[in-house]
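[scheduler] slot 2 assigned
[scheduler] job type: sequence-to-structure, two independent chains
[scheduler] chain ordering preserved from manifest
[runner] begin chain α
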Amino acid sequence: MKSKTPMIAAAIAASSLALSVNAFGASASHLPPMHRQGEVSYLSGGIGLSESDAIRHVAKAYPLELEFVLKAKPKAEYLANVKVQIKNARDKTMLKTTTGPFLLAKLPAGKYTISANRHGKVIHREVEIAASGHRRVVFEWTS
């Protein structure tokens, strides 16, 4: 008599795949629209729980994830209307937009300088994007 273990394992795997595809489909419907500037594709947003959950769900598929936060009491708050500029190692502007609380970008591998401006207070970060992988950068301002 043959073991049913491989058949059960295959059924569980198929069910898990179906659930993850359905979860992604539901999540994707809440994503903000994709934009393009030059060779950079990006999306920004995250206002509201369903949109921010959808963005977090797909973030690892993007080489760069930016998050904008105000450290306030009693708890931190997400920020919108943050001016962002991303320059490559040759000082070429790759992306310039107003965003928040999240920005996901598909950038070529390389070194970048990211400037985030909230009400005149600018924070700079140097990041390196690998050919594969994901980089998450959080910008925090204090109240």
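[runner] end chain α
[runner] begin chain β
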Amino acid sequence: MEIKGKNFLVTGGAGFIGSHIVDKLLDDGANKVTIYDNFSSGNGQNIDHLRNDERVVVVRGDVLDYNSLYNVMRKVDVVSHQAAQLEIFRALDDPLEDLRTNVFGTLNVLKAALKCKIQRVINASSACVYGQAKYIPQDENHPLRPQWPYGVSKLSAEKYCTMFYEFYGLPIVNLRYGIVYGPREWYGRVLTIFIKRVFENTPPVIFGDGTQSRDFIFVSDVARVHNLCIEDEKANGETYNVGTGIKTSTNELANHVIKAFNKSLDPIFENPPQGSYSKFMPYRRRIPGELINMVLDIKKARKELSWKPLVKLEDGIHAEVEWFMKNSPYWQAKTPKI
């Protein structure tokens, strides 16, 4: 399916990833993009640059409002479902809220898409569906044993998407994101905390020994594979990992940030009990049941979509640091508890 000339709906389109997807759809020739967001975590600043673009319509709405979703979908060809409850601690503290947004909200999207005869739905899933790695890199056949409510809700939403494809014939693609980073990233994740602390000339604080690893994928690479899943018919009904396949430890991440600022700082190592607040960062809790390793095997997307990530971690961090230097108020001056 060609993107050029088509009409799109992006739920969560004012969010970090969603806003970059909107940009990429427009760059690739979309006729119209409707941003559907309740602005609970989405940020109007993410789409300020689109204010005068006649191809963009912004609708304040919630994925829990089926009638609103249906009304905005009636003249749409493709739906990109990026709206979600994303915070691990919020899911731990209120798993019902997490369930409502991520599962009931996704079901509303699917029901409306089916009724409106949407040509394709791209669903944002997460590598959290795997839980603790049994092996790395984790391919799409890795056991699915999420250990946080957030992972459970994303897996449930993903399974509903697959069921709507297999049972009702609704064209669906699930994308399991690694750790997506880049300009407009929301504050509260480890990379953003490292950047803000080093910017303020304070050392990054590392929980544990810093050997825990993650797969960091730059947001523009996510937007590229997203659009390939619209254009390539082979993607229909499939689930893809979206990462780099590269293992990056927390220690390496901290050193990349220090280097990006060209500063001489030594990280602080701290070992607070899981779920407890940091002594050095009283706004920050250590996540219970932290993943030891999360590295994604991306052979399937490489083979079937001819996609590969283009942005190296060091270059991506430089890009995020440059953006932050120009937009430091975006991450609140008074740091919230996270």
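[runner] end chain β
[qc] chain β: Residues 1 and 157 are 25 Å apart (CA to CA).
[scheduler] slot 2 released
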